[in-house]
Design goal:
The complex is a heterodimer of chains A (117) and B (112).
Chain A lengths: L4 E3 L2 E4 L5 E6 L6 E7 L6 E7 L2 E4 L8 E4 L6 E5 L8 E8 L11 E2 L3 E5 L1
Parallel strand pairs in A: 2-11
Antiparallel strand pairs in A: 1-3, 3-8, 4-5, 4-9, 5-6, 7-8, 9-10, 9-11
Chain B lengths: L3 E4 L2 E5 L4 E7 L4 E9 L5 E8 L4 E4 L2 E6 L4 E6 L8 E9 L4 E4 L3 E6 L1
Parallel strand pairs in B: 2-11
Antiparallel strand pairs in B: 1-3, 3-8, 4-5, 4-9, 6-7, 7-8, 9-10, 9-11
Classes of the chains: A mainly beta (117), B mainly beta (112).
Chain lengths: 117, 112
């Protein structure tokens, strides 16, 4: 597609429930990233995919968070047993692979605002 | 560990002023530095990308400079307009190409 698409744009869930957040990257972008942004803060790295595999998941806060990208395109971020502290905007970005020159920038989606009540 | 700091945290200026937003980073081993704009409740819009081998980039009324050795970047906005009101985020790509590390942003308000 023309841009990075994230669905839903807003999600309200009860504490303890399971949620899935979807990201559809720009066609041809092999790299996909998930970030989390709390109010008044910059986005924080969660996980990076190169193709189908998670190349770096060091930003996932705990084992309740998991992400997949089974066909190397669409990715789903899954959160189990949601807690109120998980409330934030979850941003997805994609890019062409950076070969070491740093010439490829990220394109971000509009985010999913998750509210856990 | 790479840390990015943006100063000031907030800025309010009258329309027409030229202004400078500052960004500093602790580890000079970066691949690029990017400036983004974020409107309330929206995602991030890329403004400028400076590769580590470059010193500056320009787009319209925006000019961004990079001094990698001192760990600093500035975003210069000429002749500011109310439509420039937004949060401006600075981010560096470092640590194996796959982590964009963000500052907390500068909230800019340009009043008529």
């Amino acid at each position: 597609g023309a841009g990075v698409s994230q669905t839903p744009s807003n999600k309200v869930t009860e504490k303890g429930k399971y949620v899935e957040l979807r990201c559809d990257p720009i066609s041809g972008h092999t790299a996909l990233y998930w970030y989390r942004q709390s109010l008044g803060q910059g986005p924080e790295f969660l996980i990076y995919f190169q193709g189908t595999g998670a190349a770096d998941d060091s930003g996932l806060p705990n084992d309740r968070f998991f992400a997949v990208r089974p066909e190397g395109s669409v990715s789903t971020l899954k959160i189990q047993r949601t807690e109120r502290g998980d409330s934030a905007v979850y941003l997805c970005a994609s890019s062409l692979a950076n070969s070491g020159t740093g010439k490829n920038g990220y394109t971000f989606g509009s985010g999913t605002r998750l509210t856990v009540v | 560990k790479q840390e990015v700091t943006q100063i000031p945290a907030a800025l309010s200026v009258p329309e027409g002023e030229n202004l400078v937003l500052n960004c500093s980073f602790t580890d000079s081993a970066i691949y690029n530095l990017q400036w983004f704009r974020q409107d309330p409740g929206k995602g991030l819009t890329s403004l400028l990308l400076i590769q580590s081998s470059q010193r500056e980039q320009t787009s319209g009324r925006l000019n961004a400079s990079l001094d990698k050795s001192s760990g600093r970047s500035t975003l210069y906005i000429a002749a500011s307009q109310p439509g420039d009101s937004a949060t401006y985020l600075c981010a560096v790509l470092s640590g194996g190409y796959n982590k964009l590390i963000f500052g907390a942003g500068t909230r800019l308000a340009v009043h008529p």
